Structure formats: C-alpha cells, structure tokens
C-alpha cells in the first residue's frame, strides 16, 4: 500500500484548523507533518494536537524536505506568493480560494506551477459534495438538455465581527464559490458579462468601511445561458448553499442546508435541523477534496479542479466589483483590476 502523502499546512485559523482535523482524521492517504502560522502559539497548539512540527514561517515549512505537499490556508493576500514559493520548491500545492486577488497574481501562480511541473489544486469544495456532483453528472449526461437558466446561492448564518470583514469579501471569498459552481455546471461555456448589485443590509453601519453583506449577480454566458448568484451574511436559520440548473429537458437542484434527511411533522408544522456552518454542512466534501489532492500527487496527474478554474472564477468576481463600482454591466474578459 502506498505511503500517505506528507502535508504541511500554512495557516492555523478557522479553516486551517478544520483542514488539519480533516486531514488527520478523515484522509488515510495523507499525513499532516507540519503546521505554520505567524502566531507561534497557534502553530504550536494545532501542530501538537495532530503530532506535527510547528513553524512560525510558512517559507520554512515549504523548505522542509519532509513536506511533499503544501496546504495553503493563510490570509488571502498571501496565497499567490505562497503558491509561487511552494511550486519553486517542487512541492504539490493545495490552495484555499481565492488563489489570488488579481488576475496578474493568478497568472504568476499558474506560471510557477506549470514551470515547476507541480500539481496545483484549489479548494472549491462544492465540486466534491455528493449532491452537487450528482447534479453536475446529470447536466453532463444531457438529462436536463440545453442549459438555459441557472442559480447558485450562499447564505451565511451571520457576521461575528462585521468591522473586520475586508472590502469585497462577498465577491472574492463568498460568491467565488458560486461562480465556480456555475462555471462547472455549464461545461464548455464561458461567462461574458455580469451585472452585480450589493449593499450593506445586515450591518449598514459598517458600509462606509467597505462592508457589503448582501449581493445579487446576473451572469451571461456565451452559450446564451443566464445565471443568478446571490449571497447574504444573515441566514438566521443556518448555513444555506444551493444550486439549480434549468434546461430544455428538465431541471436539477442540489443543496438545501439540511443537517440530515430527518423531517419532523407535528401540529406545529414541518421542521428539520439545519447546519450552522460550512464545515458542518460540507464536511464530506472537505475530506473528498483532500482525497483527490493526494490521489493526484500519487498518480502524477492534474487534479479535477485546478488553478485555471480558480482564475476563471476570480475573473467573474472582479467583473462583479467593476459592475458595482460603475453601476453598469461589466465584461468578464476585461476584469482584473482590483480598485
């Protein structure tokens, strides 16, 4: 049996902590050997929990010869530089979304991975959720016919600290998942134009600081299909992720925010438990994406979701920012400058 792939994790925050647990407990093909974070105490605590070594410098972790693959869960503005550094060190790379914040940095990361001949996978977890995967298979098999209308949404349970949310997070961090999902569910088509509107309806007092917590986007594809993506940071009922593809022969949907298939029918009506966060709702998908990553490393092949996919989703996100700034539709091909 093949030895587990030795992974080093950069970033001991919320998603990094989750990734460490998933790798250690749910991915037999991987072994977490190192954790890096600029906060030494955070790195040491997470590393100790999983029997790994701790680093305060991500570059030192990348240079560790025991690390075969690097999992990047650091702050978004550091992603591109870390991808480049890991690629140049000859290490396979798993990078959380977004891979970068500009198309120039995305191209730099892609070029580094290609030049080094290393694997670059990006964390678009919905592709690994069983329901979304089945929906994708239904579309590609022709079951819904020609794709005409699409929908994807993300509704987060709330804003713990609205003053700490970086500008444009709703597009670059949240809806970028929906953009990737819509691109994936409309295979062979390219987005050509977006019209985006966004506002601060959840925490309006933070709007002047750059917070946008509610958004709706209309995307036009070159095959004529139209898609709507929406996001909110105020879903009181739980974490809600859904997708829909309507075509000439039918429709397929995925996701509903349910914690389980249990439904309670009483005199008070119908109810069911809902997930309260992304890790809870998409736990199986988080594990599956690392199974895919380690399989790609072992087999020497490209992963099923790549840096090129991340660039396409980023181009849509940046076009949305332009659309909000100009109050007009924005072409996706001309996006790329984050102002």
Describe this protein's structure.
The protein is 36% helix and 24% strand. By secondary structure, the chain is an alpha/beta fold. The protein folds into two domains: 5-118, NAD(P)-binding Rossmann-like Domain (Rossmann fold, 3-Layer(aba) Sandwich); 129-280 and 313-331, Dihydrodipicolinate Reductase, domain 2. The strands form three sheets. It has a seven-stranded mixed beta sheet. The protein has a six-stranded parallel beta sheet with strand order 3-2-1-4-5-6, with helices on both faces. A two-stranded antiparallel sheet has the order 13-14. α4 (79-88) links the parallel β4 (69-72) and β5. The termini are far apart.
Give a brief outline of the structure.
The protein is an alpha/beta fold and 339 residues long. Helix content is 36%, strand content 24%. The protein is globular.
* Percent helix range: 25-40%
* Distance between the amino and carboxyl termini: 50 Å
Note the overall shape: globular
Q: Could you tell me the mean pLDDT? A: 95
- Low confidence ranges: none
From the 3D structure, determine the CATH topology of the largest domain. Answer: Dihydrodipicolinate Reductase, domain 2
């Amino acid at each position: 049996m093949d030895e587990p792939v030795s992974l080093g994790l950069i970033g001991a925050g919320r998603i990094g902590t989750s990734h460490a647990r998933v790798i250690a407990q749910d991915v037999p093909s991987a072994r977490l050997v190192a954790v890096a974070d600029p906060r030494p105490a955070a790195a040491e605590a997470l590393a100790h929990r999983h029997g790994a070594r701790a680093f305060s410098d991500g570059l030192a972790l990348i240079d560790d010869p025991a690390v075969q693959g690097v999992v990047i869960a650091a702050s978004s503005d550091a992603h591109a530089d870390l991808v480049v550094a890991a690629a140049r060190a000859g290490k396979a790379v798993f990078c959380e979304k977004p891979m970068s914040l500009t198309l120039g940095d995305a191209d730099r990361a892609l070029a580094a991975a290609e030049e080094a001949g290393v694997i670059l996978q990006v964390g678009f977890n919905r592709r690994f959720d069983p329901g979304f995967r089945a929906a994708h298979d239904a579309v590609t098999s022709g079951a819904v016919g020609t794709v005409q209308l699409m929908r994807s949404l993300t509704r987060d349970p709330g804003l713990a600290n609205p003053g700490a949310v970086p500008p444009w997070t709703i597009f670059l961090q949240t809806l970028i998942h929906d953009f990737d999902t819509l691109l994936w569910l409309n295979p062979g088509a390219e987005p050509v134009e977006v019209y985006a509107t966004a506002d601060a309806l959840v925490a309006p007092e933070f709007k002047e600081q750059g917070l946008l917590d509610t958004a709706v986007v209309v995307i036009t594809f070159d095959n004529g299909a139209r898609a709507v993506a929406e996001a909110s940071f105020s879903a009181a009922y739980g974490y809600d992720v859904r997708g829909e593809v309507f075509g000439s022969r039918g429709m397929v949907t995925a996701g509903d925010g349910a914690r389980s298939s249990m439904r309670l029918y009483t005199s008070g009506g119908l109810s069911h438990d809902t997930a309260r966060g992304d890790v809870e709702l998409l736990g199986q998908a988080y594990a599956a994406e690392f199974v895919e990553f380690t399989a790609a490393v072992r087999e020497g092949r490209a992963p099923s979701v790549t840096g090129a996919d991340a660039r396409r989703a980023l181009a849509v996100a940046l076009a949305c920012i332009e659309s909000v700034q100009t109050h007009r539709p924005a072409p996706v091909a001309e996006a790329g400058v984050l102002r």
